């Protein structure tokens, strides 16, 4: 089982070597599994921190079940949904998965910045010193009810001199470090891991959904100067702030695009499926000149197909959707102001996720956030089907980039593989035999 200390156990991809990576995006409205081949980029063409290019060889996609706001609510349904999607990707790639990289939205994501220092005694900074200072941060930040997902060093100082990018090899008396720590509730993580074990999959690494979305949609200059990325998902909206090239803040709000669908279904008295269709085809959060004249045909719940459909002006739909979007954006703004992140993110916001493609959303976001806003789409992934190239698949694209950048964060040393015990190889084989026959 996971420990409450640094949970990243992923081996970074080796420069110059081709490797296979499998990622699983468990959302509230969709589940997506991608198997990709990471091949080294030609010399001189590598982006900052992106040494490989991803080529998709297996893709599986389906409706989510048994998951709400990133939390497992029905273990049987969640298992069936994951098995179905992973099976599709395995058949397309012609291989069987043993472990996957999984995203985390559940468990009230939170982030804090911790500082620590160790004495060097005038010696040169070595790798062991970096690990020592990170261990001090780890001991300070671990709490029994929360698990650490990421521990990202965002700045070093030597004898009080800040702004040092890499202190290795430098000489000083005192080494200080600032670490951005992203955490989540341990029990939510355990349930997620339990479902995957029932599907005979190991968790290779966890990545916070807002971090993945930011990796996929932000360009280097934005991440350097300061930017916030808002991912409008099905049942959650997540926020990440990057500055100086590092993730320094992550948060999640349990309101998403599906809440808009439910608002439409309740107000217009239509089925959830019809509400989703109406939102997709006609939804807008910005009133238009012809909205009072444009009529939308609706089929009330319980009416027979012979009955003539009712009609509502498009303006009514806009009036239903806009308050919910304003609620989400105001909550994001208030949380960021409370933590001081509005100053850190500079003058720029990037919107991504399935619900971000709504008409008029950037304009409303500009007014509420008082910042420059643009829509972000995943970049730099080849071989994705046409349907998976939109903003709804930004998290998946970011999870394929993550193995190339995870070398920056502190990873818990890998333990020796056990053959017996609760998490040993023989125990896992026994569990597989019990559940399968």
Automatic annotation (TrEMBL):
Its main location: membrane. It is found in: Cell membrane. Pfam families: FtsA (PF14450), SHS2_FTSA (PF02491). Gene3D superfamilies: 3.30.1490.110, 3.30.420.40. Residues 21-217 form the SHS2 domain. It is a peripheral membrane protein. GO terms for biological process: cell division. Keywords: Cell cycle, Cell division, Cell membrane, Membrane. SUPFAM superfamilies: Actin-like ATPase domain. Signal peptide: none annotated. Cell division protein that is involved in the assembly of the Z ring. May serve as a membrane anchor for the Z ring. Belongs to the FtsA/MreB family. HAMAP family: FtsA. This is Cell division protein FtsA. The gene is ftsA.
């Amino acid at each position: 089982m996971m420990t409450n200390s640094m949970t990243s156990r992923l081996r970074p991809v080796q420069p110059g070597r081709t490797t296979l990576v499998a990622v699983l995006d468990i959302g509230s409205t969709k589940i997506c599994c991608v198997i990709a081949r990471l091949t080294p980029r030609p010399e001189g063409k590598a982006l900052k921190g992106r040494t490989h290019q991803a080529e998709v060889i297996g893709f599986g996609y389906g409706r989510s079940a048994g998951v709400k706001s990133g939390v497992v609510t029905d273990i049987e349904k969640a298992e069936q949904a994951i098995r179905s999607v992973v099976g599709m990707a395995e058949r397309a790639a012609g291989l069987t998965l043993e472990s996957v990289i999984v995203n985390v939205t559940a468990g009230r994501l939170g982030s804090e910045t911790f500082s620590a220092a160790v004495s060097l005694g005038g010696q040169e900074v070595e790798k062991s010193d970096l690990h020592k200072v990170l261990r001090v941060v780890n001991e300070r930040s671990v709490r029994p009810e929360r698990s650490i997902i990421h521990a990202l060093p965002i700045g070093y100082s030597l004898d009080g001199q800040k702004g040092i990018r890499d202190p290795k090899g430098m000489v000083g008396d005192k080494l200080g470090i600032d670490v951005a720590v992203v955490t989540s509730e341990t029990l939510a993580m355990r349930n997620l891991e339990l479902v995957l074990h029932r599907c005979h999959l190991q968790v290779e690494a966890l990545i916070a959904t807002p971090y993945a979305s930011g990796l996929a949609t932000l360009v280097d200059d934005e991440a350097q100067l300061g930017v916030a990325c808002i991912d409008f998902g099905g049942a959650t909206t997540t926020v990440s702030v990057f500055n100086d090239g590092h993730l320094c803040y992550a948060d999640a709000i349990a309101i998403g695009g599906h809440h808009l669908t439910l608002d439409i279904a309740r107000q217009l008295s239509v089925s959830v499926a019809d509400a989703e269709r109406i939102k997709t085809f006609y939804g807008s959060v910005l009133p238009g000149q012809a909205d009072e004249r444009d009529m939308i045909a609706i089929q009330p719940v319980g009416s027979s197909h012979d009955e003539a459909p009712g009609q509502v002006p498009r303006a009514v739909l806009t009036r239903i959707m806009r308050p919910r979007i304003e609620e989400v954006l105001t909550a994001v703004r208030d949380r960021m102001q409370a933590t001081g992140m509005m100053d850190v993110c500079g003058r720029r916001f990037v919107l991504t996720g399935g619900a971000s493609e709504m008409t008029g959303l950037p304009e409303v976001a500009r007014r509420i956030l008082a910042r420059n806003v643009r829509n972000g789409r995943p970049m730099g992934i080849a071989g994705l089907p046409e349907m998976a190239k939109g903003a709804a698949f930004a998290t998946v694209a970011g999870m394929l980039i993550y193995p190339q950048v995870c070398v920056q964060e502190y990873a818990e040393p890998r333990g020796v593989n056990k053959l017996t015990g609760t998490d040993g190889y023989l125990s896992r084989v026994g569990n597989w035999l019990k559940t399968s026959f």
